[in-house]
Amino acid sequence: MLIAANHVLDFNGVADAFGHISIRNPNNNATFFLSKNQAPALVSAAVDIIEYHVANGSSLDPNAAAGYAERFIHSETLKRFPDVNCVIHAHSQALVPYSLVHNVDLEPAYAVAGFLGETVPNFDIEKYYNNSHPHDMLVNNNFLGAALASYFTTPATNNTKSTSPDHTFVLMRGHGFTTLDVDIETAIYRAVYAQSNANVQSQAIALTQSGGIFHGGVKYLSSRERVDSGTFNQASAGKPWPYWVKQTEANPLYKNELGSPV
Q: What Pfam families does the database record attribute to this sequence (predicted)?
């Protein structure tokens, strides 16, 4: 299933050559699986998958292939939230602008993105560098991974080290985003439709600035609509999964030696 998930993220334009998705080991919640350091579209076999310790992001196999430098996004998020099983990090160009502009927030613009909730936190890594860190925007150690993971909770619950996330989605300034959930299908739903929502929101903002037919700004989902649409999103998140998998299986770019997950 993890192989297919990599393909779906690539097919939908969410993950480029550098995006990645992890899944907690269903037989051992202290480890997780993540592909080796290669483009998601090219993940094709069991040998492309590495098992890591949740506790520190180290590989169980000392001879494993080179892994992603940002695997600590996954290890620290899975460590912080024991009910979370899947983490996605990618660099969607539709979403990155919303991490850069201080007076324009990413908002749920239509029903499939109610899961974004009332606010979308924006992680600014510059606040967390120390003198020994290269300022390369990468979450490439446990400290930075833990800092990012903390953005999935509100300040109130952050003080109590809540073990459940308050937010489903975090932007990363000048970098991309991270999202999470209990399973692959729901996490991918969020990644795909957050990107789609960003495109819709950007188009709506452009209309308000065009001097054309729509004046007075963009009307986003109300607070109640965000809650109720988010509930619907959660319940229906598995619906697109088999459709997306079949799309990738029909494309010769994507190979899966383990067979179809649907």
A: Aldolase_II (PF00596)
